[in-house]
Amino acid sequence: MATHSSARTATSKRSGSQLSPEAIIEASLRIAARGGDDAFTVRRLGQELGCDPTAVYRHFRDKDELLLSVADRTLGEALDGVPHGLAWRDRLRALAAESLRVGMKYPVVSSLMASRTTRRPNEFRIVELILGAVHEAGLTGADAAVHYRMFGDSILAYVGQHAALQLFAPTEREADQSAWSREYRLADRERFPRIAGLVEELAAVTHEEIYAARVEALLDKIERRAAEVRAAEAAADG
Amino acid sequence: MATHSSARTATSKRSGSQLSPEAIIEASLRIAARGGDDAFTVRRLGQELGCDPTAVYRHFRDKDELLLSVADRTLGEALDGVPHGLAWRDRLRALAAESLRVGMKYPVVSSLMASRTTRRPNEFRIVELILGAVHEAGLTGADAAVHYRMFGDSILAYVGQHAALQLFAPTEREADQSAWSREYRLADRERFPRIAGLVEELAAVTHEEIYAARVEALLDKIERRAAEVRAAEAAADG
DNA sequence: ACCTGAACACCGTTCAAGT
DNA sequence: ACCTGAACACCGTTCAAGT
Fold first, then answer.
1. All domains of chain B in start order, with CATH
2. Touching B: A residues 209-238, CB under 8 Å
3. Positive or negative CA dihedral for B47, B48, B50, B53?
4. CA 20 to 30 Å from B174, out of A14, A116, A141, B21?
5. pLDDT at A44
């Protein structure tokens, strides 16, 4: 009896099952979605799994390797939200929207992945999707490659930026966000006439508007580049 | 004599001068530019200043307040690199280039600022510059505000993304970066035909090309939106 | 008035010890 | 074969004590 007493006091612990990479990834997603200061710490993960924090190192070389696996899961979740049968522009638009939605669901993950590649299956699927879309738009070869990177890297950066903001302690986030309606409202009209003249408009801009403008800028660029190439080829042929 | 012995053994310490916010900011810039794992830690800063690490808290409420002051200095450095007399497009292009250059000079700072505002003088100057440029492009009111945010936030996100990548330990950065020439080269041709077909082009894309495509996409968007508004106004007038 | 330095509550990770 | 838990080398920050 004495030998089981510590297991007794934490009845949720272990539940008889062995730890597995799968279980660790799923627990990571749960705590990442729950948010908070310790949204993705090894100790919090051990708590969620009901085991010693360091047990994770039996299944993943280090926390970074776990992060990449977890992140690839979130990429899959975003991908699954993109409907089939859309034309290239709507397909990329949907991918951008899903990436933001899922990214905000697991902000600690997307903020850490803003400049990373998972090099795992779901990333391959997303790359294939974007390459298919830019091909459908009319880009080939090096043009397709550059514009794929432009789109993919930008979405990653935007989502990571949004997510990092959400991770902030509410008080600091508020200070950063309310800058437009507070500090900027007090800007010296002599030195900063443009700011002074647009103070109301600057305070009224929403994240949705900004994200839409960013995504549309990228889609427009792909479309225009394809038109440029077509025009050049027509000129060469004629 | 005994009372001075500890000061003796560290002759570079204090050098008689009081600590000041200025001195702390400049020391922060020096260690941030030098890079490394402890590029911006309180302990490393104390070492650089030749004083106890916690002395910094006499002059800044916390590390975040110091970060914002340091970041605003880097914004000023970027701004000073933008030549006068350029037309709006070249002015924004120059700002984007200088932001990247300075951001990579202090990667630890720009990676931390990717989703932040400093709410300090040099940020006001940059906002004024961008607003002036979009106004020159032909945007007014809410359009000017949204497209300013689109441009400003995107540059911040791109530079932060680049900087975060550079901060990585070389081995991990290499793994992430070489993905295109390693993992992706091994992609299954059946499942990922687009990737397989563009493997060489994907591996050959440079950061400079990607950054140029991203920036030009934003500039094009501003120009096209202005043209749209002009066309709508002409239609309403005629 | 300002700086010091021990201390606290955290991190990720290692490793000898358990089972 | 796998997990445990003490320990290590770090963080940012607080606070009583020095000068």
1. 2-60 (no CATH), 87-167+206-237 (1.10.357.10)
2. 209-210, 213-214, 216-218, 220-221, 224
3. negative
4. A141
5. 97
